[in-house]
Specification:
CATH architecture of chain A: 3-Layer(aba) Sandwich
Number of helices of chain A: 6
CATH superfamily of chain A: P-loop containing nucleotide triphosphate hydrolases
Helix content of chain B: over 70%
Helix content of chain A: 25-40%
Distance between the termini of chain B: 53 Å
Radius of gyration of chain B: 21 Å
Strand content of chain B: under 5%
CATH class of chain A: Alpha Beta
Order of helices and strands of chain A: EEEHEEHEHHEHEHEE
Distance between the termini of chain A: 16 Å
Number of domains of chain A: 1
Number of domains of chain B: 2
Largest interface: A-B, 24 and 21 residues
Shape of chain B: globular
Strand order of the largest sheet of chain A: 6-7-8-3-9-10
Number of helices of chain B: 10
Largest sheet of chain B: none
Oligomer: heterodimer
Shape of chain A: globular
Structural class of chain B: mainly alpha
Structural class of chain A: alpha/beta
Number of strands of chain B: 0
Order of helices and strands of chain B: HHHHHHHHHH
């Protein structure tokens, strides 16, 4: 169990969140903050993000700006708190069919280095292209919180840099980012606070850099 | 028009020789089908013989309770068959209940309405009308429902990440599973649509052939066949719709999650 007290107004507040395999977890995040979660494979990082997005059955509560997710339908919550899994799914043949007509995403696509990707078939995407497009797809809905699971795992250095710049710009607009990563350097670049999840039925975390 | 020509058992043995030839081919070509072919043939022989004896007794008894008991036995067996034909099933009682209840409601509703308003035997539940009709409607509904559920469960399992991707972008559970639902409904409806489209051109339906062979005027046989096809089509559609939507409802929850933890992983799990 871990708790963060920083004297900052908590805009995302996770309270005693637990599933069969994860938690209990307490965490507060401030406007525009990025928090990194590290830990070995199987320690429950991805499951924690799924629980925050309410995608698996779980106990506890998560509030955004004081508003509990239980006070709204789950689909509204997920529009505010957008989770991008390590391997996102695609349900249509063409990339463009995964985006809404509005708002325009061409700036975001250019920023991640895929300006023409809307016209491509999904079958030709590399895993790195899938990852970047999944982030753009999530950002189109203008979420308040991003839950990112290994967002740059399959990317080369230039693409990592571009993606991180996109994420930094989101933070400047007040978007909170909870970042699961295996890369301590990325965690250090993006996040002021880091937690390490350890193996076991109950998750423990140490506040490494707080 | 010649009347009814009775068959002898030696006629049946002669007719079965072609199937025996198929079994021999399977052995020679090492297809491994001979065992299944033999078991299925024996099952068919025993089941039909028994049913002949049973129906004769039931028709003679002309009891509403015995007719009802037999209908219940048929629907229970068909429910079990739906359950067995799915590679991935819902765990627990739901695994049996979803297919069983939608098939039972659809088939019973259609059969009772047909008996009371269209065929109108006296009494309306007369076993020689009610049981064959119920059996035909049940058999087709069973096929549709089992195909629909099997497709739905396989698709939900295979398309999990695509469905969850939509949920994560704020889609409701009904929208996110719509492609899987549509595919399941289509597969459930396909046999009956194909049967309706091909009937009379490619093949004469079994029931109509039976009536014609037993000396009924073909135009009268056609009327009966049309009635049966409408009933079968209607019941199959209702059964498939009910089963697929009930299953979608069970495999998602009110927090718009995909609940594949309520689905078995293989045929060995989830016995009710």
């Amino acid at each position: 169990m871990f708790a963060i007290q920083g004297g900052i107004e908590p805009l995302l507040e996770i309270v005693a969140l637990r599933t069969e395999l994860v938690g209990p977890v307490d965490l507060s995040m401030a406007d525009g903050e990025c928090v990194a979660i590290l830990g070995p494979s199987g320690s429950g990082k991805s499951l924690l993000l799924r629980a925050i997005a309410d995608l698996d059955p779980n106990d506890g509560d998560v509030c955004l700006h004081g508003l509990s997710r239980n006070s709204m339908p789950a689909y509204e919550w997920r529009r505010l708190v957008s989770h991008v899994p390590a391997e996102s799914g695609w349900w249509a043949d063409l990339v463009i069919d995964h985006f809404k007509p509005e708002p325009d995403v061409s700036d975001l696509l250019t920023a991640v280095g895929l300006p023409d990707a809307l016209d491509w078939p999904v079958s030709r995407l590399s895993s790195g292209e899938c990852q970047r497009l999944a982030i753009v797809r999530a950002l189109q809905g203008a979420p308040r919180v991003l839950l990112l699971d290994e967002p740059t795992a399959s990317l080369d250095r230039t693409s990592v840099q571009r993606t991180e710049e996109v994420l930094q710009r989101q933070r400047e607009r007040g978007v909170m980012i909870l970042l699961v990563t295996h890369d301590p350097k990325q965690a250090a670049r993006l996040a002021k606070r880091q937690f390490t999840l350890k193996d076991g039925p109950f998750l423990t975390a140490s506040d490494v850099l707080a | 028009m010649t009347g009814y020509l009775a068959l002898s058992y030696s006629d049946l043995i002669a007719a079965s020789l072609f199937l025996a030839v198929n079994g021999t081919f399977s052995l020679l070509l090492n297809l491994g089908l001979e065992r299944q072919l033999l078991i299925a043939s024996l099952r068919m022989i025993v089941q039909l013989m028994l049913v002949g004896v049973l129906l004769k007794a039931v028709f003679a008894a002309a009891s509403a309770w015995i007719t009802l008991a037999l209908a219940i036995a048929m629907v229970t067996f068909a429910g079990r068959e739906i359950w067995a034909r799915q590679e991935r099933r819902i765990v627990g009682i739901w695994g049996y209940g979803v297919g069983f209840s939608s098939m039972m409601i659809a088939a019973t509703l259609v059969t009772v309405i047909a008996l009371t308003t269209q065929i109108e035997p006296s009494p309306w539940w007369s076993p020689q009308f009610a049981l064959p009709l119920f059996g035909m409607i049940l058999g087709n509904t069973m096929t549709g429902v089992s195909l629909g559920l099997d497709t739905l469960h396989a698709t939900l399992h295979r398309e999990r990440s695509a469905i969850e991707a939509q949920l994560l972008l704020g889609a409701t559970r009904w929208v996110a599973v719509m492609p899987a639902t549509r595919r399941a409904l289509r597969n459930g409806f396909t046999p009956i649509i194909n049967a309706m489209a091909a009937t009379g051109v490619v093949s004469l339906p079994g029931m109509m052939t039976g009536q014609i062979l037993s000396g009924i005027d073909p135009q009268e046989a056609v009327k009966y066949q049309l009635l049966i096809m409408f009933l079968i089509g209607g019941a199959t559609g209702l059964g498939v719709l009910g089963a697929v939507f009930a299953s979608v409802w069970r495999l998602t929850d009110d927090r718009h999650r995909l609940r594949l933890d309520r689905l078995t992983n293989d045929r060995r799990q989830g016995a009710p």
